[in-house]
TrEMBL record, chain A:
The protein's name in its UniProt record: Sorting nexin
Keyword set, alphabetical order: Protein transport, Transport
Cited InterPro entries: AH/BAR_dom_sf, BAR_SNX6, PX_dom, PX_dom_sf, PX_SNX6, SNX5/SNX6/SNX32, Vps5_C
Keyword Transcription (UniProt): no
Domain PX: 26-173
Gene3D superfamilies, A to Z: Arfaptin homology (AH) domain/BAR domain, Phox-like domain
GO CC field: cytosol; early endosome membrane; retromer complex; tubular endosome
PROSITE patterns in the cross-refs: PX (PS50195)
Keyword Protein transport: yes
UniProtKB/TrEMBL annotation, chain B:
Region Disordered: start-end pairs: 1-104
Entry similarity comment: Belongs to the sorting nexin family.
Physiological role: Involved in several stages of intracellular trafficking. Interacts with membranes containing phosphatidylinositol 3-phosphate (PtdIns(3P)) or phosphatidylinositol 3,5-bisphosphate (PtdIns(3,5)P2). Acts in part as component of the retromer membrane-deforming SNX-BAR subcomplex. The SNX-BAR retromer mediates retrograde transport of cargo proteins from endosomes to the trans-Golgi network (TGN) and is involved in endosome-to-plasma membrane transport for cargo protein recycling.
Domain PX: 140-269
Annotated protein name in UniProt: Sorting nexin-2
Single biological process term from Gene Ontology: lamellipodium morphogenesis
Compositional bias (Low complexity): 27-50, 93-104
Subunit and interaction comment: Predominantly forms heterodimers with BAR domain-containing sorting nexins SNX5, SNX6 and SNX32; can self-associate to form homodimers. The heterodimers are proposed to self-assemble into helical arrays on the membrane to stabilize and expand local membrane curvature underlying endosomal tubule formation.
Length: 406, 519
């Protein structure tokens, strides 16, 4: 239905800026630049055209594109998560699945209800729903892009082989979505993980930094979750109110065209006002969604990723301590000492490696977060101001005309 | 006083009848009907009388006139006209043509012509219109406020008393500023009285606010929550608008019941307004009967104006209902938005608390505060949406119902006239039969009956013309009012929106530097 990204330039630029801005510290270095240059929405899947520009020797060409689907992004993300070497890094959160169901349903309902409303109303609502669809589409594209950019910006992850394959291999990666069995396995894995997480979190950390981070992240994550949900609801109410303006505008228009007295001009003008105001209100709602709701949602996922990192570290700490105990036992029994020693050393190394990188990652996380919030809050305030001023202007103009008439 | 004046140039001077009428009230009552039946009297002084229909506690002649100058003239005029019967009903004169012509001593009015020429009334109407305009521009200097709702009593017998304050410079009131305490049923009682007097002769009586058993019960029970305060406020505003509309109507303003309502400190309790009273049930029965009748009356509409207007009002009704539904949805959504904004504000504050970067933490707290203020704005906005826009629409939907009712009364009036004509025909046939059968006593009776019914036919025709005239005038006034009302309210509403946006700008402008200060 919707093809290509380049429909409303206005729309595109703001959103692109908006979501990319979530990761402000992305070095746009020539070494590796990734973006999604195009996207196609088919029946129930979206095909992204991933475009890479790189001066790295790993790639055959300097510039190339491939077509990828959502499942392939998930595959890439999971491969990072499962890779032990990356245990010490915050794995960039996977992009959410493209979800056009709600929008599609609404369009369908509109089609069914076509007979019950006037032509203008129908066209207006159709335009509105199409714009909504386009917005969701652009958002999902942006989120997939952000994921790739994060990976590309990460000094370690960008060198990952799977990543390179993802970027370069111009045929289908034959990655199918997880079937039922695998999904069930995932579910159990998660349960085990969270149970384990509880046990592991009971272990007090000697390191103040990590202890602090742990308490902080736990609380922060919960609160971001709450704020994100509430922000979502707020944005949606805003949108409903804007939609009402649409219907009011139509009714006023009908009144204006049918009335016999001189009030009809009045009604027509007010109807026009409502139409214009509605567009602004819809933009307000969309911008709030972008700058606030999306920001919070993203940091919800990132904070989860950070929590996962901490979990992995704690896990390795527990493993280390267990290995220590095992070594002591082995030494006491004087049995399999060498084995125990090697295993202990491995655990130690692992733990230390994770701790080191984790520290840096968490510091980076904070920097990124602060910068992203700053950028988005500033932009939110600026946009709200712009729209309020626009609204004010409209209202004042309309009042001037109406007062002049009467 | 009467004796001093020249006898009016009546066709058949009826000095005897004249003397009979000592009672000023009755005189006046009769006067009204006679005035009404002379369409060709363009004399302005007679106008005020026209407005008061021939029934109910005939207002005293002196109080009728709006303009002081004309008062005396008119008062004299009323006393001079000789009239037939001092009843309240439309006068049934025993003469074939009630010589009702001259009313005022100043102008010679041509005797009423039998032909139903509508041209004369039209001129009449126009001049009346002019006078009306003058009177309107002549400041209806009366301001009504309904305030201070206060709960009186306890339990299920409790009620809300509202203070009705009137500020006026009109001479008909004894003071220029006064207030009384009234309860909701008093308002309903007033409306019921006005409706019974004026509706069936074609005046658009503004409908009273609706009852709400649920709402009142909550208040009675003493629930002090926001929904019951909202309910009381909604009702107070509705009562105020109702009174303001009622006093704006030049005819209703003259009504003594209205005056009593505004002025007297004690008012007899209007029990007839209770839904479950005998009167209430009677009302419901009547409504049902009316509905059935409406379906069976096939009116021969000779005047396209009425048909056109009825269609227009039908359309307007539909449009307004549709708009009202949308506005109500908007009010609902905005209230939702306000609640969600408040929830978000709290959440953002919590987030700001847990954020360990100080500048960001402060900015988030600021954001929370901004959102809280915006929530307040949304609430006010919803308030404006509702009280200005939505209530205006629902008032007009009810008003249009009243207008439709008036049109229906006209139909009923026509039906009555038609029925009288049919009966007259029958009586004439009966008489003819008697003539043939040669029964002298029965013939006399038949002749009497014919006379009776001829009079009824004429009265019916007069009534019909009168109601048509009144409706035309009323509809004209209604349309003007409507236009004015809508324009005023919508402009006020838009101005409140301007305020909202200006506040929004202020809040975000205050927040922006905070956001930029995040380092």
């Amino acid at each position: 239905m919707m093809e290509g990204l380049d429909d409303g330039p206005d729309f595109l630029s703001e959103e692109d800026r908006g979501l990319k801005a979530i990761n402000v510290n992305l070095q746009s270095d020539a070494a590796l630049q990734v973006d999604i240059s195009d996207a196609l929405s088919e029946r129930d899947k979206v095909k992204f055209t991933v475009h890479t520009k790189s001066s790295l020797p790993n790639f055959k060409q300097n510039e190339f594109s491939v077509v990828r689907q959502h499942e392939e992004f998930i595959w890439l993300h999971d491969s990072f998560v499962e890779n032990e070497d990356y245990a010490g890094y915050i794995i960039p959160p996977a992009p959410p699945r493209p979800d056009f169901d709600a929008s599609r349903e609404k369009l369908q309902k509109l089609g069914e209800g076509e007979g019950s409303m006037t032509k203008e109303e129908f066209t207006k609502m159709k335009q509105e729903l199409e714009a909504e669809y386009l917005a969701i589409f652009k958002k999902t594209v942006a989120m997939h892009e952000v994921f790739l950019c994060r990976v590309a910006a990460h000094p370690i992850l960008r060198r990952d082989l799977n990543f390179h394959v993802f970027l370069e291999y111009n045929q289908d990666l034959s990655v199918r979505g997880k079937n039922k069995k695998e999904k069930l396995e995932d579910f159990f894995k998660n349960m085990v993980k969270s149970a384990d997480g509880v046990i592991v979190s009971g272990v007090k950390d000697v390191d103040d930094f990590f202890e602090h981070e742990r308490t902080f992240l736990l609380e922060y994550h919960n609160r971001v979750k709450d704020a994100s949900a509430k922000s979502d609801r707020m944005t949606r109410s805003h949108k409903s109110a804007a939609d009402d303006y649409n219907r009011i505008g139509s009714s006023l228009y009908a009144l204006g065209t049918q009335d016999s007295t001189d009030i009809c001009k009045f009604f027509l003008k007010v109807s026009e006002l409502f139409d214009k105001t509605r567009k602004i209100e819809a933009r307000v709602s969309a911008d709030e969604d972008l700058k606030l709701s999306d920001l919070l949602k993203y940091y919800l996922r990132e904070s989860q990723a950070a929590k996962d990192l901490l979990y992995r570290r704690s896990r390795s700490l527990v493993d280390y301590e267990n290995a220590n105990k095992a070594l002591d036992k082995a030494r006491a029994k004087n049995k399999d000492v060498l084995q125990a020693e090697t295993s202990q050393q491995l655990c130690c190394q692992k733990f230390e490696k994770i701790s080191e990188s984790a520290k840096q990652e968490l510091i980076d996380f904070k920097t990124r977060r602060v910068a992203a919030f700053r950028k988005n809050l500033v932009e939110l305030a600026e946009l709200e101001l712009k729209h309020a001023k626009g609204n004010l202007q409209l209202l004042q103009n309309c009042l001037a005309v109406l007062n002049g008439d009467t | 006083m009467a004796a001093e004046r020249e006898p009016p140039p009546l066709g058949d001077g009826k000095p005897t009848d004249f003397e009979d009428l000592e009672d000023g009230e009755d005189l006046f009552t009769s006067t009204v009907s006679t005035l009404e039946s002379s369409p060709s009297s363009p004399e302005p002084a007679s106008l005020p009388a026209e407005d008061i229909s021939a029934n109910s506690n005939g207002p005293k002649p002196t109080e009728v006139v709006l303009d002081d100058d004309r008062e005396d003239l008119f008062a004299e005029a009323t006393e001079e006209v000789s009239l037939d019967s001092p009843e309240r009903e439309p006068i049934l004169s025993s003469e074939p043509s009630p010589a009702v012509t001259p009313v005022t001593p100043t102008t010679l009015i041509a005797p009423r012509i039998e032909s139903k020429s509508m041209s004369a009334p039209v001129i009449f109407d126009r001049s009346r219109e002019e006078i009306e305009e003058e009177a309107n521009g002549d400041i209806f200097d009366i301001e009504i406020g309904v305030s201070d709702p206060e709960k009186v009593g306890d339990g299920m017998n409790a009620y809300m008393a509202y203070r009705v304050t009137t500020k006026t410079s009109l001479s008909m009131f004894s003071k220029s500023e006064f207030s009384v305490k009234r309860r909701f049923s008093d308002f309903l009682g007033l409306h019921s009285k006005l409706a019974s007097k004026y509706l069936h002769v074609g005046y658009i009586v503004p409908p009273a606010p609706e009852k709400s058993i649920v709402g009142m019960t909550k208040v009675k029970v003493g629930k002090e929550d926001s929904s019951s305060t909202e309910f009381v406020e909604k009702r107070r505003a509705a009562l105020e608008r109702y009174l303001q509309r009622t006093v704006k109507h030049p005819t209703l303003l003259q009504d003594p019941d209205l005056r009593q309502f505004l002025e007297s400190s004690e008012l007899p309790r209007a029990v007839n307004t209770q839904a479950l009273s005998g009167a209430g049930i009677l009302r419901m029965a009547n409504k049902a009967a009316d509905a059935v009748n409406k379906m069976t009356i096939k009116m021969n509409e000779s005047d396209a104006w009425f048909e056109e207007k009825q269609q227009q009002f039908e359309n307007l009704d539909q449009q307004l209902r549709k708009l009202h539904v949308s506005v109500e949805a908007l009010v609902c959504h905005r209230k939702e938005l306000s609640a969600n904004t408040a929830a978000f504000a709290k959440s953002a504050a919590m987030l700001g608390n847990s954020e360990d970067h100080t500048a960001l933490s402060r900015a988030l707290s600021q954001l929370a505060e901004v959102e809280e203020k915006i929530d307040q704005l949304h609430q006010e906005h919803a308030f404006a949406d509702f009280y200005m826009f939505s209530e205006l629409l629902s008032d007009y939907i009810r008003l249009i119902a009243a207008v439709k009712g008036v049109f229906d009364h006209r139909m009923k009036c026509w039906q009555k006239w038609e029925d009288a004509q049919i009966t007259l025909l029958k009586k004439r046939e009966a008489e003819a039969k008697m003539m043939v059968a040669n029964k002298p006593d029965k013939i006399q009776q038949a002749k009497n009956e014919i006379r009776e019914w001829e009079a009824k036919v004429q009265q019916g025709e007069r009534d019909f013309e009168q109601i048509s005239k009144t409706i035309r005038k009323e509809v004209g006034r209604f349309e003007k009012e409507r236009v004015k009302d809508f324009k005023t309210v919508i402009i006020k509403y838009l101005e409140s929106l301007v305020q909202t946006q200006q506040q929004l700008i202020k809040y975000w402008e205050a927040f922006l530097p905070e956001a930029k200060a995040i380092a």
